[in-house]
Amino acid sequence: MSDRGSEVPVLAIDIGGTKMAAAMVGADGRLTAHERVETPNRPIEHPDPETRSRDAEAIWAALDALVGKVLAAAGADAERIAGVGVGCGGPMTWPAAEVSPLNMRAWRGFPLRDRLRARFPGLPVRVHNDAVCVAIAEHWQGAGKGYGNVLGMVVSTGVGGGLVLGGRLIDGKSGNAGHVGHIVVDPDGPPCGCGGRGCLEAIARGPGLTAWAREQGWRRDDERDPTGVDLAADARAGHPVAMAAMRRAGRALGIALASTANVLDLDVVAIGGGLSQAGDLLFGPLEEAFAVHARMDFARRVRIVPATLGQTSGLIGAAALIQRPDLYWGGDDR
Questions:
Q1: Model-level pTM?
Q2: CA-to-CA distance for 272 and 317, rounded, in angstroms?
Q3: Which among 112, 186, 258, 316 is least surrounded, fewest beta carbons within 10 Å?
Q4: Per-residue b/e over 229-258, b at no fewer than 16 CB within 10 Å?
Q5: What confidence tens digit (pLDDT) does each residue in 164-174 have?
Q6: Burial (CB count <10 Å: 0-12, 13-18, 19+), residue 75
């Protein structure tokens, strides 16, 4: 396959704790035979080994069935695809892709890449972090297209990211370069799931924001657990605590991105994920904080924009691992 991209489509897979998606993706980033299913993901805190193994196989079986459905819908088989690209939550060993997603407790050290290689013998199978795939997509076909230096971010249940410098994805030693969610923005801030304190993720992720708002007296009329989308809706309606929560998230993002821009000399930051859909409620305080903390001329010129590819970005970025390895794949293919 040429490094300029194959005319043969790629099977792209996006694996999350709530949904799994798959599609055929062409060299132009267009999707066909797009399918989504719920992830059979039971939130068991301390499962015994037998239960965990059974649940792990149930997730794999659902993924295998999803892949089969997409191939059938496309009228394709393993001999008529260029390879398999995958985005999956981390942490993971990279590029071996033994995955342990924080929001999928059944998969601990699950050999995802090996399983897919056995399913598609002889084809390249490449797996990267799901937020990295979003960043790849925005550089390849989205808000960062045509720019050499791009940070792509996801602000949702967590805060993740990926980094393109000089037109190429930067993996880092362990595949975690661009993981901006753990930039410290408030050393005295709330504890983070990583074990630190005051990380961007601890403050700006959706569940963290809703927890903070509830501590300040924010409530919803229904009985279900509120989400970041609910919080943004109430902020848009003028609820003072919800508005304060969005300002808090935007300010944390602005501080983190000022530091990032100073270090990396970026062209574009593209922000996606559910919380980014709050629009000016988030981007307004973000831009204010960024202006205060990014004082160097080269940092101030960075464009901070919403991501443009929406829920398909993970699939498009996963496909690019196969379609454009010259730009986006630095791992081995052993």
A1: 0.91
A2: 13
A3: 186
A4: ebbbbbbeeebebbbbbbbbbbbbbbbbbb
A5: 999 999 999 98
A6: exposed
